[in-house]
Amino acid sequence: MSLTQPPNCPRRRDHLNARNRALGKAGEELVLHHEKRSLLSAGREDLADRVRWTAIQDGDGYGFDIASYEPDGRERLLEVKTTNGWERTPFHISRNELAVAEARRDDWHLVRVWSFARSPQAYVLRFPLEAHVELTATSFLAGLR
Question: How confident is the model over 67-96, as pLDDT tens digits?
Fold first, then answer.
């Protein structure tokens, strides 16, 4: 027996994944620069120099994209979610990101960047996310019994 994929299916999915990764990276970069500018405006050049784009410099999987600081020196862990849609466009969040949000609830912030291609806007959500959004399972891990 031979199975075939629908025409262009994998290529389309790869193209969409690459486009979404590029959009996410662009949103992270926008937030990274905003964080540095905010700290510089607050007179905290020392902290602005320590802001770290963890997703790029250290790799994905930390549960946040940017390690930044409040002007008083407290840590700010920023998970950036970017779309070209409006502010209510759904976004994906991983189990790990939710776990880090819970474990580091005082430090963790979800920065929601929307309308990126037209006129980027942003807002911040804090833990518990369930107070602000409806979390819907969209994938499952299936293991053989």
Answer: 999 999 999 999 999 999 999 999 999 999
